[in-house]
Amino acid sequence: MEQVQELEKKYSDVFEIDSNLDRLLRRIELLSYVNPLNIEKEKHRFFASKYNVEPEFKYPKVKFKPFKLQRLFFAQRLERIQDDTIRKMYMDVINFYSNMIQCIETIGKGKHFYYNSLSVYGTPTEKDVQNARFILHFEDEPVSSDMEKIYSPKEASAYFEEFAKQYDFPLNIRFSTHIAAEAMVSNIEQALLIKKNIKFSKNQLLTLSNHEIGIHLVTTFNGLLQPLKIFSNGLPNNVETQEGLAVFSEYMGGALTLKRLKELAYRVLAADSLIKGYSFADTFDLIHGHYKLNRDEAFGITLRAHRGGGFTKDRLYLSGLRKIYKRYQREENLDILLSGKVALEDEDTIKYLHTLGLAKPITHKTLSFTQKLNTNRTLDFILNNLR
User: What is the per-residue pLDDT across 153-165, written as a single tens digit (0 to 9) for each?
Assistant: First the structure.
């Protein structure tokens, strides 16, 4: 405690700005706004129209005034921070979240949202698209009983609670109908949200446990234990690294399957279809009609890409996995990437903050990283050959 007080005294301007930004950032969790409220209704309508009618999604009301919030971001007196590295870090934070506010402000406004989404998440590169097609060339694996969807949300909750006992942090579970994923972590609520009204397979439960609890909650709680709150709120462009770590945790925990890897490949192609001007029905036709993925899964992937007006976040899972896997192959430590919601590009800055006492070693480690339970040779071959 004494140490923290000394730090706050020595770097009072840094802590003041960090604290100000913390109050502002709590209000802008993009995922809580970009998931439609009427998914099931529009899915039914789309299927009934033989995949021709464009869905009309409705979105939650924004609970803050975007222009006012942006003004408060840019009112931060960064010139008070003497240290060039720290000042630049917070300048990048402000610019990044300013773009994020514009994203939230334009949800449901078609191309306006899409262009703002591009500024935050980018679009798949040609290399990403080639990697996705390479994965989709492989024959599907035989379906095992682990893939049967037989577990209710309540049973999933019990599974997650049991899994989380390995970790030394609380597991707060909530059920929701308004999420596009089967389960997801809300960083602001420090909660695991489980989708209602669906069934889970045994493999899915292991996958989600390694992904959501083993990485997203680990980085949430590690971030909260750092001296600076920006670690838990998130440094710019952290999604690729965080999702890469999360899928890598699935791999190391023995949960990753070729089917799951193909799902990430479809997401890249769906995100790529946006820049080509595809409508919802066009993207669905690519995934369901051309690649023959079943219609429910094809709808889910298309929805994730088209929600808001065109959302490219999903392109980052595969490229993130490739980067983390390559790092693992080079036997480089991953601990620093678990410090909070941080990106690979932040590594030097975090090491520098360590020297000042403004960052600390992690408390919670990802258990799958030491388990090394993957035994699937096909996955190894694919991951070794991604470009």
Answer: 999 999 999 999 9
